[in-house]
Design goal:
0% strand; Na+/H+ antiporter like fold; 350 residues
Length: 350
């Protein structure tokens, strides 16, 4: 992508504003400030009329690095714990998928959104994957994108508040920007990230750009065959790219288009988040996990954003991502059937 002088100035302004927002959030000790700061800056720049967009390859690269970050936290002990409690976790995932379908049906029943658009917009799965499938099934992709990313923004912002109220979580250990590097480990990590991400995209796997590097890295790292090298500067760039991708999606035309249904959309997001918070509290009582871990595990936000917040906070990131992956797969499996069911019901009612 060729950049002219104006583009360079715009990107420079976005970077400066991102640093300012991140510093303010860090002073408040909110989890995921390296993601939320660029996200807020992206929204401000976009609503001011900027046409900046994150290049697709850069976004895929950021997702792949985040996949490796999650892989470094997944251990055999975590997998054993998840398998031991699989009935409860499966029940929680099923409840979230059903709840998102009910919320989508209510939005369509009220006549605020077409049936398939409402279902895909409220689906608690990966935002990018939901947008792709929504377009395939004839939904309004602009509205689905707005609903998905608005929920990502609200969920990400609320994670810090949940951690403060619960008295746990908070910001993780201080990041070392330029640690001593092991070149071979870094090259292996980059090969797994970018090679796995490219393969996941080529195979057209849902969220494959993050999931495939995460799975490959988790297997190899868990078996002790490799050491994932993830310096602070690489993580900061990757987190910023993901935050910008979300923030720059809040364009003026999309916002104007969504204003008519905005109160109902916000109500649907609040309802789904409230239901997931109840499920999170049940996990706290049943499994003894800390509240922020349970909140992020049941969170209906974007999987990559949740991964960044989990990796940069004092939570059980492996448990969080195990739940997120299970829910994504369940949503992808059930989504088309739920969309058709709701659309048919709404059509009959009309």
């Amino acid at each position: 992508m060729a950049l002219d002088g104006r583009d360079i100035l715009r990107w420079g302004g976005l970077i400066v504003l991102s640093v300012i927002c991140e510093a303010a959030l860090s002073l408040a000790r909110l989890p995921g400030s390296l993601l939320l700061g660029p996200m807020i800056a992206g929204i401000a720049i976009s609503l001011a009329g900027s046409t900046l967009r994150v290049p697709t390859r850069a976004f895929r690269g950021g997702q792949a690095i985040v996949g490796c970050v999650v892989a470094s936290t997944i251990t055999p002990d975590i997998l054993t714990s998840v398998l031991a409690d699989w009935p409860l976790l499966l029940a929680v995932v099923t409840a979230i998928v059903l709840a998102s379908g009910v919320v989508g049906w209510l939005l369509a029943r009220w006549g605020r959104l077409p049936g398939t658009t409402a279902v895909w917009g409220t689906s608690a799965g990966g935002a990018a994957a939901m947008m792709l499938m929504a377009g395939h099934y004839g939904a309004d992709v602009r509205m689905v994108a707005f609903m998905q990313y608005l929920r990502v923004l609200i969920v990400a912002g609320s994670a810090g508040l949940v951690g403060r109220l619960a008295g746990v979580g908070g910001a993780g250990p201080a990041m070392t920007w330029f640690p001593p590097l092991h070149p071979v480990d870094l090259l292996i990590t980059l090969a797994i990230a970018f090679g796995g991400g490219a393969l996941g995209h080529r195979l057209r796997l849902p969220a494959g750009g993050m999931l495939l590097p995460m799975m490959l890295g988790a297997v190899l790292h868990g078996a002790g065959l490799i050491n994932l090298e993830l310096p602070g500067w690489l993580l900061t760039i990757s987190y910023a790219i993901i935050g910008w991708n979300v923030g720059l999606g809040f364009t003026r035309p999309v916002l104007v288009y969504a204003l008519r249904a905005l109160p109902h959309i916000i109500l649907s997001i609040a309802t789904l988040m409230g239901f997931c918070t109840v499920l999170a509290w049940l996990l706290v009582l049943a499994l003894g996990v800390d509240p922020l871990t349970a909140y992020l595990a049941t969170s209906p936000g974007g999987m990559d954003s949740v991964a960044v917040i989990a990796a940069s906070s004092n939570v059980d990131a492996g448990f969080v991502m195990a739940m997120q992956v299970i829910r994504l797969l369940a949503t992808l499996a059930a989504g088309p059937s739920v969309a058709r069911f709701v659309a048919n019901r709404v059509q009959r009612h009309a």
